[in-house]
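Tokens as discussed.
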């Protein structure tokens, strides 16, 4: 699988400046000679697994019929689909197939903690989800076969939608541009741009690299919940500067000023925000699957590395780091935070986030951190 992204006359800097979250971009031959790390049969096999999130959509534009089924599926289901157009969607393939990791590294010009997952869709002739929009950035890489993409207009939660579907399918669709994508071609779409993809012939497989974009409501709810958990009930609204009001029922400007001071006490602290945001943005996509099956101790780790083992970042791990205002760094790994102070540990943190596999030097500063990451399942030995 060739994973070097061919920008042509573009560059990552120009892409971010001119297109990122601004307008769609079609990149012909973005991945020259691209060979998928798994085929259609292997994708269908994943959809039959209990822990894998998958969906099957039967969508016939001619009749207007639209139906959704959730996996896991029995293998026989795919043989029974008949002639109606259909598409299979398998979420978070990067959690289950290590061989796709090099492809995702081609998108390292976007912060790693913004990345959500790799979804793969397989469509029969005419199959697709239907016209819709997403609230996040996505790169749509054609892996096999041909898919026709139509794009047009910006949509939001107030836009009309079909009331007989559980997802945002647009009932009225007017394409502004249309292209056929062949293997190696890639389309970038910013949030809220309407789009409609349809398989042209059988064997259409598209890889979707999506990015996390929490809503303002999710950010505020998560932050305030986190702050509240740590606050004593003894901390109360106070007004020692109170003066007789002009009218007893008025909430005056002074009261609002005191309220604003309470909020700013917490919201204006960059370290407090960074600590929460790092944990929030690295929370595992599937928390129920996180964790290591077996605990490992320092002696076992040392022996494994001496025997030639490597440490590997778990396929579903989410990692990030932040330089604190003091002398420390904080590593965020799968919703947990690990402050580090020694130079060797700081170097290790940046290595862990930058490399998918490595052989570290063990010492009193690095070993405890590595053991913690191994035993919570963010790393494993291979």
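Sequence:
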């Amino acid at each position: 699988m060739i994973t070097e992204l061919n920008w042509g006359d573009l560059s990552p800097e120009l892409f971010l400046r001119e297109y990122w979250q601004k307008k769609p971009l079609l990149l012909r031959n973005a991945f020259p000679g691209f060979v998928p790390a798994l085929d259609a049969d292997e994708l269908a096999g994943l959809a039959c697994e209990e822990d894998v999130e998958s969906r099957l959509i039967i969508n016939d534009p001619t009749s207007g019929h639209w139906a959704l089924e959730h996996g896991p599926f029995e293998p026989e289901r795919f043989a029974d689909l008949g002639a109606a157009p259909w598409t299979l969607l398998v979420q978070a393939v990067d959690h289950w197939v290590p061989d796709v990791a090099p492809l995702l590294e081609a998108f390292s010009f976007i912060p790693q903690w913004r990345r959500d997952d790799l979804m793969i869709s397989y469509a029969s002739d005419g199959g697709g989800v239907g016209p819709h929009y997403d609230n996040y950035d996505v790169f749509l890489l054609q892996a096999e076969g041909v898919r026709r993409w139509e794009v047009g207009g910006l949509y939001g939660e107030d836009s009309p939608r079909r009331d007989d579907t559980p997802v945002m399918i647009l009932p009225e669709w007017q394409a502004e541009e249309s292209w056929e994508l062949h293997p190696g071609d890639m389309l970038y779409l910013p949030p809220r741009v309407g789009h409609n993809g349809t398989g042209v012939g059988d064997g259409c497989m598209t890889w979707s690299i999506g990015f996390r974009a929490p809503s303002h409501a999710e950010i505020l709810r998560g932050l305030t919940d986190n702050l509240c958990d740590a606050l004593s009930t003894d901390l109360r609204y106070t007004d020692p500067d109170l003066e007789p009001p002009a009218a007893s029922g008025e909430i005056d400007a002074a009261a609002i000023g005191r309220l604003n001071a309470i909020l700013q006490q917490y919201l204006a602290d960059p370290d407090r925000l960074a600590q929460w945001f790092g944990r929030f943005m690295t929370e595992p996509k599937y928390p129920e699957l996180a964790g290591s099956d077996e605990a490992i101790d320092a002696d076992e780790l040392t022996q494994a590395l001496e025997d030639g083992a490597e440490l590997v970042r778990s396929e579903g791990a989410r990692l990030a780091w932040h330089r604190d205002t003091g002398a420390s760094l904080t590593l965020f790994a799968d919703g947990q935070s690990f402050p580090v102070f020694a130079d060797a540990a700081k170097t290790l943190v940046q290595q862990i986030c930058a490399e998918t596999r490595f052989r570290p030097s063990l010492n009193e500063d690095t070993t405890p951190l590595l053991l913690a990451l191994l035993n919570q399942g963010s790393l494993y030995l291979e």
